[in-house]
Structures are given as structure tokens and as C-alpha cells.
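Q: What would this chain look like folded?
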Amino acid sequence: MHTKRTLMTWPLTPEGLTMQPGDLMASLYETINLANADPAWPYLIIPPKPGEIEIDRRKGWIGAECEYVSKKELRKEYRNG
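A: My prediction, written as C-alpha cells:
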């Protein structure tokens, strides 16, 4: 599996701006899980570790350096076993 790494950010909603850090991180993991389960989303994101997550309330985002891989590549690799 050949992963790539990039900074991924998600905007904070007005509700997110007032959430505690732990709740924001839980929300981020839920968002990543939903994207990973969505057949229309072309990538599998490897969730970041808690210490890798950055919350910037001033700029209104939460994000982390995340590894990801193409779902198409994974399926191809799995079939070729």
C-alpha cells in the first residue's frame, strides 16, 4: 500500500467553535469515518493520532497531516493479492 500524506483541514461550524477539544476530535474522527465509508469518496484516510490534530479557532478549522490512499488502488492490490 502506497500512502500519501497531506494537510487535511475541515471548517469549524458555529457549534464547533464552542466545542471542547475532545468533542471536536471525536467529531473529526466521525467525519473521517463517514468519508471512508462513502463509496463516492475516492480515498481512504488513515485517522491521525490525537497529538497530530490542530484546532485553529481563530481561522475556523480543525486539521492534521493525514495519510491517505486511493480506494481504487487498494481494491486493485487486494484483487491481485
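Residues 36 and 44 are 5 Å apart (CA to CA).
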